[in-house]
């Protein structure tokens, strides 16, 4: 003790002497007093300048950080049902997050954070969003985990804004000035409106309870620790503003900083010497605390505890002191900030949810554990909700600023369960998932900007995460098939394609059994480029004043006598297909064939007489078969070869053979719209003309009662016949027609095999079919096989397991789960590009009211109907039926009686001699009356 006292006294005496010397220098009268004052003066100003510059730099640095934080890229990680990553899968994912944090270059550390936001969405489902610097958007959108789909996040959960398309050579029309709206409803009293329910916020920041070199126990894989968070999200009520979020911010730590920290930990372990259970054993190494230095000085330089030896720390002690930062461990190290924020409609409810979310972190408890900062030993346990911590917490939560309360470094092994979305071991049902992941769009896939000659697909995602509107060259699309659940966007995609092709100058033939797609399409077809080519055939009309087009399959107008056999084949095959006769019903086929032959000759005769308005229709067939007097009046005008069947063979048939033929026509006659459409002598619709003139034909065949399938069968067969009639025409001169058949299952039942015939035979005649249906398995076998064999564009929305299994075999790169779990407006697509099939890629549908918004003109629909009345010569249903049936008081004869009256008159041209050729055997350039035309005798 005496030696220690002498040392202390000596130090005190030295300090007193130094103080006296400095005072003497500053005293007045000393020659060098003024230089010292000048030095002090300059040092003061220099310090002030340093403070000002440093403060300005610090302020600029903070503002720069705030600007970077205001522009953040956000993506969603959506796992599949089978997502189960291995530890090896998490290593490149952690490296990707570390690289994303460093893409901004010279960036304040507080703005470098990558935020992983685990929380409830607007439907109470657990979702994971990743936020990072705007410069890392492309990097974050690259897939880094298997079976995880990455999507750009939308804060309002609305559909993304779609680029508006402008077609080539068809600029959008100006919109009329909006009419002034008069408010007729009295404004409600603001005081009477319901008030928004109060929302209470509970906050907590979690930090490590012990030094960060102490390892956290990695969370177990099964069960997934996020299972607890999913259960919490299931209890929140998003409609009332409740939310629960666990936010983890990470910033990568460089290997140099980790090595420096490791050396510091080693020095601490050396100074501590041997230890057990955290307590020192024996003496300490020099360089420790000041007390040990004092004791060594008192002992003459020897360490305390006696003896001259200094015990070295054991290797185990060094490893324990370094902890998880061992030199051999090459794991990625992150600085971490953990924030928990819960909102509730009651403070107690919010606080309870906060503790539930904090319980998620108990899965990491071990040698180290998580604890909240702030008051936690009081009764309220406000944590980061305390008034002196709340502002900092809210700023970091809202902006993404990385400024944790204390330093805490964790390895990717410790953080693995928080760097990924919920795995397959999370059995909660309220997790945002996708069935599986699909390949990005092919790089060679063209971008749709409104150009002609392409078939649009929708929004596609490239390998680098960028999205665009994709399309296929029209020449690559021969036939297409689209499958999926009802309401998942099949009809919308077909409608978009049909409108685009129409503006591109091609012809459309759109068969919509229900009419919803046609009604939706009309306001987009009012542009001068397409309005003159639109033909609407709506067979659902019931009003007598409705305007309707005409189609007479028996019409011989502008036809030669040699074409009578074509008319017979088309009508008989169409009606036989509608009745499902197949190869059976030989008597019915024979009767129908001869009946159509007579009526075709009669139609040719009326045309030659200059009365095409008196051609017979399908509804004349029952009159021919059942009214013997009417039949004889017609037969006397027919060639002897035609009369022979009716005089020799027909009387031998049993009486029940005729109803088999007439029942089909009688079913058609039960519909007012069908009678008006098929009961007009002169056709205004012709499928071959529609093909050649690139017309846009919109057909609705439902609402006719029992005649729906019959008329659908007739129209489909007529399309097939019109396509085959192009045989012999130069392929280069043929105009391409895209035929769309919605609800193919209903159409296939009426087509009786002609869908397969169209798929197999009409490609070479430039007729291309695009078919949409819910289930391929419900199609007839021949149609399904032909569709799968010939399709060059296959699209699949969400489907049932059996249907998905059928489609997955034909779409390499996908599986059943991927197809069954697709959300609405999402399709798995496989197409032909550059002559080769592509891999299956993801397409997101775009609604036409967004992408074609500039072409939506409902105010011009009346003008469209006026144009169609003129181009299609549409007539009111009332007028058509009056001409067909006549009046009840017999003052006006029906069409059949008018034909008899015309037959009783003298023909316009002179009667030919007996050597004149009969129709069908001689030559004639047409059916129009001519000076050398002759009547059949």
What labels describe this entry?
937 residues, alpha+beta, nine-stranded antiparallel beta sheet, 31 helices, disordered C terminus
Structural commentary:
It is a single chain. This protein is α+β, with helices and mostly antiparallel strands. 38% of the residues lie in helices and 15% in strands. The strands form four sheets. Strands 12, 13, 14, 15, 16, 18, 19, 20, 21, 22, 23 and 24 form a twelve-stranded mixed sheet that branches. Strands 1, 2, 3, 4, 5, 6, 9, 10 and 11 form a nine-stranded antiparallel sheet that branches. A two-stranded antiparallel ribbon has the order 7-8. α14 (564-579) packs across α15 and α20 (672-678) crosses α30 (877-885).
* Tertiary shape: elongated
Helix content: 25-40%
Count of DSSP strands: 25
> Structural class, judged by helices and strands?
alpha+beta
Unreliable segments (pLDDT under 50, ≥5 consecutive)?
1-9, 155-160, 181-188, 283-288, 305-309, 908-937
